[in-house]
Amino acid sequence: MLDDRQTATPWPAAYPKGYAVVDVETTGLARDDRIVSAAVYRLDARGDVEDHWYTLVNPERDPGPVWIHGLTSDVLEGAPLFPEVAEQLSERLAGRVLVAHNAAFDWSMLAREYARAAVTAPVEQRLCTIALSKELGLPLPNHKLASLAAHFGVVQQHAHHALDDARVLAEAFRPSLHAAARDGMRLPLLECRPLTEWYDSPVAPRVGHQPSHGQNSWRPSRKRPACPYPNPGRYESGKPLMQGMRVAFSGDTSVDRELLEDRAVEAGLHVATSVSRLTSLLVTNDPDAATSKTVKAKSFGTPILEESAFTHLLRDVAPARAASVPPQSS
Q: In angstroms, what CA-CA distances link 32 with 35, 59, 216, 260?
């Protein structure tokens, strides 16, 4: 691919001034899982590598799928805790757009670790290379990192090792960035909100403190009241959300799922745990994923919105048409 400096196309002035390509390996995919290793490749405005950084992280618990990341309890025992590497990591993230493959996941894991450490993550925006490859219309057979790497001729040396995955992604991101710049394309940047709202727990975990096995989330779970408004039906494109609409969520979200659901409830929406013919809309950042909710939504013709569009609509939800209607059941 030709470098943009070999063409007459100017570099878009609105593009970010720097990027932090990130990969984290974790003990699992749940809300209470922990990071076991992290890597960052810092890139300049045009995607050229400035430096890289890698660290192991002691998760203070079972390391999870060792057969995937290869990091055993013995290897991680002497590794630093996340609060001990948070400052070094922050130096590499500050002032840059976080870039990752399925960025919602990497960001959510980092945000939770920062919240546990009572430190604010210095990240304002993220860019998912899956979303970028879709915008570019790359002819990929699937959304795996290996497929993106193969498309650009990048050789993977150690899959699921955070440093090598970050290197591979950095090398594949640069030509993607240049293709977007050449076409004058707007980058699919999403807002990153630090999870400061997770400080609801009575006592924040101390460094070295082992959380109880029954603790499934940082934020105490509680049952929400039933929505007091009638269901006005499906969401219609171009119109505002209306109080009482039934909203379901699928997949990773940039804002913690529970917090996003809270905001929906506060706006007067009904948060549904599943998709049915009564669902007003489904919110997902990966509408092509073959999850049960997206499959049902498509079969029912339920409208599907990405998180960024949904959160924008949440700012101005229309009042319910009628009152004094029995609340909907969960």
A: 10, 11, 6, 17
Please tell me what DSSP assigns to residue 53: E
Range of the structural domain that residue 294 is part of: 222-330
Closest alpha carbon to 309 in 269, 289, 288, 282: 282
Query: Shortest CA distance to 306 belongs to which of 262, 268, 253?
Result: 253
Q: Do residues 169 and 100 touch, judged by C-beta distance below 8 A?
A: yes
Cβ density class 296-312: b for 16+ within 10 Å, e for less: bbeeeebebbbbeebbe
Task: Decide if 81 contacts 207 (C-beta within 8 A).
Answer: yes
- For residue range 225-284, list pLDDT tens digits in order: 788 899 999 999 989 999 999 999 998 776 667 778 888 888 899 999 899 999 999 999
- Residue 256 sits in a domain whose CATH number is 3.40.50.10190
Q: Indicate the pTM of the whole model.
A: 0.64
